[in-house]
Design brief:
Elements lengths: L6 H4 L5 H14 L16 H4 L2 H28 L2 H15 L1 H10 L2 H31 L7 H29 L2 H28 L5 H25 L3
Helix pairs in contact: 2-9, 4-5, 4-6, 4-8, 5-7, 5-8, 5-9, 5-10, 6-7, 7-10, 8-9, 9-10
């Protein structure tokens, strides 16, 4: 890690404040092994854990996403939209991250956090496989989702939930000077774009293209599987 610090940092080895800032910056942008938004379903950056305000911000944003995913689940139960199913799994996965966050903050147990992270990632992975099965089944046995307006509203709920989560994380990140929180805010905004895919699928179904539902569902599932793999790698390589 020492070779990754800026030159001016090495000239002041006793400046602990600079060292902490540089370390958290490395964690937010390099520790997750190439994940574009510095986001992991399994572990929480230390710059967030050590701050009550950081934990509060992340927990609140996860609560928002949990409520959004539960509302989406309700709409899926009577609409049958595969695109909506994959999006609620995507949003619900972010909400589940509160489990390792809570363990890391309240019990100060890195081992406990790691195992909780593995459990969360495995749950999301299994959920994604279920969604993939449903996507393939929908392609083989086509059926048109119903209640398109409800699906569109559920997509809007996903967009709004992620945008609210993004704002919560950005504000806390700027106040705490936490690159990890700011990166997670960017991730939440990107997830809002994914949720917009649900709205698009409902519109395409409305104009006579029901195949859009499993196609968009497949694309979202692929994103979940990719994020799950990256999170698994992050936990496995953590110290």
């Amino acid at each position: 890690m020492a070779n990754n610090h800026p030159t001016e940092h090495n000239e002041h080895p006793h400046d602990h404040a600079d060292h902490d800032h540089g370390h958290s910056h490395d964690q937010a942008h390099g520790h997750n092994h190439g994940e574009p938004h510095g986001h992991s379903h399994g572990l929480v950056d230390e710059s967030i854990i050590r701050s009550k305000e950081g934990v509060k911000a992340v927990s609140l944003s996860f609560a928002v996403l949990f409520v959004a995913s539960m509302l989406q689940l309700f709409v899926y139960s009577f609409s049958g939209s595969i695109a909506l199913l994959t999006d609620l799994i995507h949003n619900g996965g972010d909400a589940l991250t509160a489990i390792p966050l809570g363990l890391a903050f309240f019990y100060k147990s890195k081992k406990g956090e790691r195992w909780a992270g593995y459990a969360v990632v495995m749950f999301i992975f299994i959920s994604a496989l279920v969604a993939l099965y449903e996507v393939i089944n929908k392609i083989i046995h086509p059926s048109t989702p119903t209640h398109l307006w409800a699906i569109m509203i559920a997509g809007l709920i996903g967009v709004a939930g992620n945008e609210i989560a993004a704002v919560i994380r950005w504000r806390a990140g700027k106040h705490l000077d936490s690159p990890a929180l700011i990166a997670d805010g960017n991730h939440a905004r990107a997830d809002g774009i994914v949720s917009a895919g649900v709205i698009l699928s409902a519109f395409l179904i409305y104009i006579g293209l029901p195949i859009a539902d499993p196609i968009i569902g497949f694309l979202i599932t692929a994103m979940i599987l990719q994020a799950t793999w990256q999170s698994w790698q992050t936990i496995r390589n953590s110290k």
